Structure formats: C-alpha cells, structure tokens
Hints:
Blueprint: H1 13-26, H2 40-56, H3 66-87, H4 91-105, H5 113-119
Magnesium ion (MG) binds at residues 50, 53, 72, 75.
Amino acid sequence: MPTPLTRNAKLTIAQLQAAMDEFVGSRGWYGPDSEKPQEPRNLAASISLEANEVLEWFQWSNRVEPDEVGGELADVVLYCVQLANVLGLDLGDALSRKLELNNSRFPEVEDQQWQRRLAS
Ligand SMILES: [Mg+2]
C-alpha cells in the first residue's frame, strides 16, 4: 500500500524509508539499466553534494530563506534515508543509538543556557 505523502504529513523515520523506497522503485531506479543506479557510493556522493548545497546558502551571508534551505536539508536527509534503505539499515534505530551514545559522551551543562536559548 502506498505511503500517504501530503505536504503536512508528519512521517516517522520508518515511514520515510518506506516512502523513499516506493518513490525510487516506482521510477524504475532499482532496475539494472537505471539512469540513477541506487549504489551506496552514488548515494553517499549525493549526500555530500546536497550538504554542499546547504553550505552554499551561507557562503557569503547568514541570510536564511526557510523554504530554500529547508529544501536542501530535505535533500540531504532523503539521500540518507535512501542510503539506509539500500544498505538494509533501520535508520530510526541508528539515530536512536547515536543520540544515546552522544548523551553518554557529552555531559549536560550545569547551567540552563540551552533552555534559555530554546525559549528565545
Ligand atoms: Mg538540492
């Protein structure tokens, strides 16, 4: 069953993985003669290229165009999602494990500066 994709959908990581799999599959990009072969190297390169498109927005200024920058961030994330698909990884699980690892590696600050930042 196709994953419902609407502009305001709040998808879980698993739903994003399913939606990307469906998107790529429905365009024939998994096929042997695909113009966009879903090889790990190609997807890893695409992540890097899209990350540089994010960086380009801040090359000469810190001006933020939310829709434009958001679109580039989405490109990065979607290529990450697709690389996880191709590698058979549960990206939600990988993200949870990394957050847990970071929580143990980096101690919390004593003051509540981060809370003030979130409140501003
Ligand atoms: Mg892009």
